[in-house]
Write a structure and sequence with these properties.
mainly alpha, about 270 residues
Amino acid sequence: MNYEIHNQNTDNFIIFDNYNTYNYSLIFNSTISFYISLYLFLHFKPVFKNELIFKFRNNDKLSIIHLLTYGMSSIHSIILSVSCILYLLNMLNIAQMFTVYYFSIAYFMGDLAIIFLNMIFNKKFSKEDMVFIIHHFITSMMELYVIISKNKDNIKDLMFYLNGGLIAELPVIFLNIIWFMKNNVINYYDKPLFKISFALLWINYLIFRFINVNYLCISLIQNNLIFEFLLSSPVAMMNNYWFYKLTKIFISILTVSKNIGINNKTK
C-alpha cells in the first residue's frame, strides 16, 4: 500500500485494498456538493442578514437564537467537511486536524448549551432536541477519543475513519437552507429552489450519511475495531432513520410535483 496515511500497521485492514477508489470518489462527490451548497449559502446570505436585522429590531429573542444557531451550524459544517477533505488529500496534518476537532467540540458544546438554556427559560423540550443532544454528545466523544489516542500506533487509521465519517456533516448545509426557507420564505414548498435543495439534501444524505457511514461501520467490524464500532453505531442508526424520513418526504414532494404537472397539462 502506497497511500501515506496508512503506511503503518495496516496490512490486515480489509477496507484499504480499495482505499484509493473509495477515498477519491468520496472527495469528488463532497467537492461538488460543497461548491453547490456554498452557492446556495451565499445566495441566502443577504436574506439571512436582513431577517436577522428585522428580528433584532423587533426584539424577537427566540428567533434570533434560532437564526444564529443555524448560521453557526452551516459555518461549522463547511469548516469541518472541507478540513476532512483536505486531510484525506494530505493537505492537512494530524495536529492541524486536532485543532479542527477542538473547534468542532466547542461548537457542539455551545449548541448543547443553547438547547439546555431553551429548556430552562422557555420550558420547551422536544424529541428533536433529544436527538440533537445524543448526536452532538456522541460525535464529540468520537472526536475526543481520537484526540486522546494520538500516541496509539493506529492513530492514522482512526483519523481515516473519523474524517471519512465527519464528511457526513456536509448535507447539514442543505438542511439549514431548507429550514431557513421554511421559516422565512412565503409558500416555500412551491419554490423551485426548495425542491432543488431538498433533492440535493437527499442525494447527499444517501452518499455521505447512508452509504458512507454504514460502509465505515462495517469496515470497523471487519478490522476488529469493536469499541470504535460501538461508539459510532448510534450515529449510524440515527442517520439511517433520518434517511428513511427524508426519503418519505422526498417521495411526497415528487408525487405532489407530478400531480401538479398533470393537472396543468389537463387544464
